[in-house]
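seq/struct pair 1
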Amino acid sequence: AFQTNDEINNMTFYKYQISTQTWTEAAEAPYPFSSNEESTLTYPGSGNYIYAFFGSISGYGCARYDFVNDVWETLAPSPLWQNQVFVAVAAGDKIYTANTVDMVTYTISTNTWDHPRNYNVPAFTYGSLVNPETDPDTVYMVYGNGSSIFYKYSVSQKKVLALIKAPFLFLAGAKAVYPGTGNFIYVVPGGLKTEFWRYDLVNDTWAQLAASPNAVFSGCKLTGKGDVLYMAPGRDITNLSSQSNYVFLKYTISTNTWASAANLIYPIQNSAELGNTMIHVPSQGRIYWRPGSGSGSFYVYNTGADVWTALASLPVGGYSGQALHYPGTGDFIYNL
C-alpha cells in the first residue's frame, strides 16, 4: 500500500482502552517509527515502562514510555543500527537486542549498553531472540533465513553454551513461542510446511509434534499462554484467493492435538508481514490483531466463545514497523 511522508515519519503513539473499546492518542513519541522497517516495543515484566526501538529512521534512538504518567523519556542510544531485522526482548534488568551485525545488551538500572561485538556470535538474518521467563540469564537465538542454527547463549558468561542444530530449516513464516510455564519452546518452521516442533530447554533436544492442519508461510502468527496455543498459518501463496488465508487454529499442549477455531474476519494479505501484529491477553481471554498491509482494522478473538469481532479501527493504516504491545497488566494496549 502507498505510504505518505506523514505515515513514514509518524511519531504518533496510540493506546487502546480495553474496557471502553476506544483508541486515543498518547504522548507523542520522541522519534519517528519506521513504517518500512521494524519497530519494537518490549516490557521487562515489572514497572511502569515500555521500552521502544523505532527502526532505521531513528537509527540508534531508543526510549521508554511511562504508561502510568503518559510520558516518554529518551535513553542512551543503541550501539546497533535498527535495521529491518532488528529485534529486542526484555527480561528483568536487561534488554537483549540484535541485528544483522551483532548482539548487545542494555541494562535498565544504569541506562548503559555493553560494547558491541562482545558476544562472538555470527550475524543472523530474519531470526529472533527468545528469553523464557524461567531463566533470565539464557537467551535462545534463532538465525533464520533458511538455516537450522539455534544457539543457547549465557548472558552472564558472554558465551555460547551450546549449538543445538534444529532438525529443520527456519523458513518464511517460521515462529516460536514460549507458553509462560514449562520446559518447552514451540516452533513452526514455515516454508509452506505443516511440521510442528518443541525444544526441550532442560535437555537441549527437539521433538516433532502433531502436524498443523494447514501449511505455514509468510504472515504466520503464533501466540498463547498455558495449555493452548493459537495460530494463523499465514498467506497461502499457492492460492491467493484461498479460504486458507482466513484460517485460525488452536493447539492443545497436553493432548498434542490441533483443532479449527473461528476463521479470521479479514484475510492475511499478499504483503503478509507488513504491520501484521497479534497479541494474547490471557487475563482477558482475548487475542487482539491488526492485519497491517495498510489497513487500520483492529479485531479481537474471544478464546472462550471462539468468536472474532471487529473493533474500532485506528485512524492510520498499519505498515511494517508497526508494533502492538500489552505489558501484561492494566486496561491498555499500546500501538506504534
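seq/struct pair 2
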Amino acid sequence: IIEENGKYKIADDTLWELDWPDDLEGVVLARLNTLAARDRTILGHAGVVGPVFWPGALVALERRHVECSEQFGATIRDNLTFEMDRALERLEAMRFIRKVETRNLNQDTWSFRSSLHHRVASTIIPDASSSRFHVTIEQWLRLHGDAKNLFVQEELARHAELSGQNNKAATYNHQAAVIAAREHQPDKALQLLTKADTLISDDDAPARFDISLDLGLALEKSGRAQEALASFHEALHLAWRLRHERHGANALLHIAQVQTTQGTFDKAGQHYEAALRLYQSSGDRSGVGTVCLHLGKMLWVQGRHDSAEQSFRKAERIFSELGNRKSLA
C-alpha cells in the first residue's frame, strides 16, 4: 500500500498480482473460506435443508449418530441448541443468512440471503453425505411440520426424493396436490400430480391408482381430455389387477363422464353401465346413485327424456334413503 496525493492505494504492480474473484459467486466463495470450520459445517448443513431452514433441523442432523443415554429417563446434555443459535448469529453478521417471519412451522426460521448464497453453501457437504442428511430432515419435518401446509408437503417430497425414497416422495406430492386443489391452485395441483405420477413405482399399485385417478381429474379440469382418459384407463387397469370393484367403478365412471363431454355417447353409455354393475356388485349404493344421476344427464342431452327421468328418479330414491341431500342438489 502506497501514499499518493494524500491518499492510500494499492501499488499497480501489486494490484495485478492479486487473485481477485472472477464473479459474484467467487466473492461469496472467498468469504466462505474465511469461516471457522464449525460455522462452515453448520452453513453446509443449512444448505442441505434448503433455501429456508430451521435450527431444530440442524440440531437433528448433528444428533443423528449420538448414542442413547444408559440412564433411564435421562437425555444427553450437549448444549447444542445454544451453540447453534450463536453460530447462526455469526453467520447472520457475515451476511450469509437472515432470520425470517413465516407461519409454515412453529419454529424459528432462517433463510439464505439469496439463491447464490444457498447455491454456494450447498457445495460444502458432499453429495453422498447429503443423501443421508435428507433422510433425517424428512423425518424431522414430518414430526414438526403441519401436514395440511402446502409448503411443508412440498419440502417433505423434495427431501424424500433427494434421499432416494421415490414412493414416499410421490405420496407427499400427491398430498400437496390435494392441498393445492383445495386452495384453488389447479395448475399447481396438476404439476404436483404429474410429479407424483413420475415418481411412484408400479409396485405400489394402490398409491398409483389414487394418483392416476386424481391426475385424470386434474387433466380433465385443464381441458386435456385425451390425457385424462389415458390416466383414468391406467387407474382402471390397476383396479382390475387388484380386483377392487369399487375402484374399477370409479375409474369407469370418470371415463364415461369425459366421453359424455366429448359427445361419444355410445361409449359413455357402455362405461356407465359397466360402472353401475361394479357398484352394485360391491354394494356401493351411493356409487349406484351417482351413476344414475350422470347417466340421466347424458340421456337428457340426447333427447331421451323418459329414460333420463327414470334414471333421475332412481338416483333421487337412493340418495333420499341414504340421507345424502348434497348429491340430490
